[in-house]
C-alpha cells in the first residue's frame, strides 16, 4: 500500500488524494497501470504534475481499459496536453472500439499539434463581439456573457479556455467601458406570466409535445449502428461486421418493442412502458413491435393475449395523442417459437458450454449475472399444453434466453425496459455475443408506481378471489381495463405518462396527478347533462304552461359545440343537499327564506310549502317561480331534472386506506387488511335527464355540479349504469 501511495504522489497527487484513490479498486488499478506505462516512456522522474493530472483524469473516465496504454503514451509524449484534448481522445476511442486505431484520424480529432496563436484568439473573439455588438451596447453588462464565451470557445476549439476568457473580458471592457451604477443593479425578475409562457414553450418545443421531446432527442440515446458508444456495451471482434449487416437490414431505422408477459392484464405502469416504447419509435419515424413473452404456458391464457392487444390499441387509437399506431405489425407470439428445432440445436452447439445443473431437463448458460445469480436457465421441459400451440412443444425457453435473441432477430435498436431488468443486462449481452448474432442495446428506466393501490398480478388475483373486487376491470383497480371502465380517457393516461416523464430512478406518484389529467381532457370532451343522485321532489305551483322543452348547450363555455333538449314541467327533482330548512351562514342554495335559480331554465324558485313524512323527513317542496330576468339575482343556481330516467350510479373512492398497502411497516397485517370499506357506494335510483338515453358503453358525461361519469358495460336497455370517473375540481371549502 505504501509503495502505491508513493507511486501516486510521484505524479503530483496529495497523500490524502492518493489514499482516497486506493479505496476505489478499479480506479487505483487503472491509474497504477497508466503511471507504469508513462514511466516506461519518460522514466521514473519524467512524469510531471501536469501529465499526472491528465493521467488521473484519463484513468477515472476511461471505460475500455485496453486503450489505457495508448492514451498514456499520448499524454507523456505531449500529444494530449489539455483536458479538452483528453475529452476528445476519450470520445474517439469510445467511437472506434476496434483495432487498429487510425493515428491520423485520432490526432486530427484531438487537435494534436494544433497551436492557437494570441492573434487568432484576438481575431476570433473580435468576430464574436462584432456579431452581438448591437445587443451588447443595449444591455451592457446585463447581456449574457456566457453566450460570448460559448461562441468563442466553439470557434477556437483548441485554445486555452482561460486565455479566451481573458480576451473576451478585455474586449467587452474596451467596448462598454467600466461598469456604471445601473450596470451593478440586478436584472429585473421575469414576471410569472412570462415565466409560465417560457415553460410552456419549453414543453412544446416549437410544435413538439412534451411526449415527443421525452421520447426523442432529449433522451440522447445512441444512433442506430452506434451501439458500441453506449456505456457497458460489450464489443467483440465481430461486433462491427454485425452492426454493418444490421444497418443494411434496417436502413438506420429506430426499432423498439413492447414485450409483455401474457399472464395478466396490463396496468398503469405498463402505460408508461407503452408510451415510452411506441412513442420513442414514432417520435423518430421508427417502428415498435408488439411481442408477447409467452415462455410460461402454465400461466398464460388467450384472454390475456387479446386483452393486451386491445389495451395497446386503445392507448394509441387516438390521432390527437403522441402514440398513434406506431407498431408496424403484431409480431407472432415469439419470433423464436416457430423456428425449426434443428436450428435451435445448432445454436445450442454453438454456445460456449451448456451446464445441465438440474439434470437432463434443464439447459443453462455458463455465466454470472450482475446480481450474482449463476448459470441462468436457458431451456426447460414443461409438459403443459400451450394455449396456442397445444402439445407441439415440450421445451420452453426462459426470458433470459429468448428476450435478447428475439430483439436480435427483429433487429431492435433500443431495448427499453424497467430498472429491475438491469441485472439481466449481462446475460443479454453475453448470449448475443456467445452466438455471434447482432446485439441490441438494453437501456433501463424507472418504473411508474402509484400510491393507494397494488398492481401485482398475484395480489390482484387475491383481491378477486376474496371478493374485494369483481374482476381485473373493477374500476377501483389501476389496471388499464379498469381505468377504461371507470371512464379514464386514453389521452389522459398518455398525458399523465408525459407529465411523469422518463426517469432512471423509480417514481411513486399520487393518484391525484392522474385524476388532474383526466379532468383536463374530460372538461373539453365530455358533454354536459344533469343528474340528481339523491332526489327531492319539487312541485312548481305557478308554472305558466304544463311543460316545455328547453335547449341546453353540451358545453356551456362554448355553445357552438352542440346542444341537447330536456323537458321542463311543473314537477322537477333537485338534490336533497340543495335544500335546508334552516338558513346557515354561508349557505347559498334553497331555504324557506332564500330563493335559488334553476340552471338553463330561466326561472328562480321560492319555497311556499315544505312537506314531510311521518318521520319528519322532507319529501317534497311546493314552490313558486318567476322569470330570472325580472327577479332579483339569486345567490346560486342549482341543477335539476324533469321526467328523468332512473339509473344506477356507482361512486368510487380509494380501494386502500394507506398510501403503501404493501409496506409491512405501514400495514402490518398485509394489504387485504387495508381495504377501504367505503371504496364503492351504489345509488340504485339516481335520476338523469333524457339526453343520455342513446349513450354507448364508455361514453362520458359531465353531470353538472356532480362530477364526470362514464356508461358502464353492465348497462341494459331498461336501466343505465354510470361510473363516477372523477369528481369536479371544486373548492373543497365551498358549501
TrEMBL record:
Family label: Belongs to the class-I aminoacyl-tRNA synthetase family.
Keyword Phosphoprotein included in the entry's annotation: yes
Function of the molecule: Glutamine--tRNA ligase. Plays a critical role in brain development.
GO molecular function per UniProt: ATP binding; glutamine-tRNA ligase activity
PANTHER family (UniProt xref): GLUTAMINE--TRNA LIGASE (PTHR43097:SF4), GLUTAMINE-TRNA LIGASE (PTHR43097)
Pfam family, one: tRNA-synt_1c
Biological processes, Gene Ontology terms: glutaminyl-tRNA aminoacylation
Subcellular location as annotated: Cytoplasm, Cytosol
Protein name: Glutamine--tRNA ligase
Annotated source species: Sander lucioperca (Pike-perch)
Subunit architecture: Monomer. Part of a multisubunit complex that groups tRNA ligases for Arg (RARS1), Asp (DARS1), Gln (QARS1), Ile (IARS1), Leu (LARS1), Lys (KARS1), Met (MARS1) the bifunctional ligase for Glu and Pro (EPRS1) and the auxiliary subunits AIMP1/p43, AIMP2/p38 and EEF1E1/p18. Interacts with RARS1. Part of a complex composed of RARS1, QARS1 and AIMP1.
Catalysed reactions, semicolon-separated: tRNA(Gln) + L-glutamine + ATP = L-glutaminyl-tRNA(Gln) + AMP + diphosphate
Main subcellular location: cytoplasm
Domain of life (superkingdom): Eukaryota
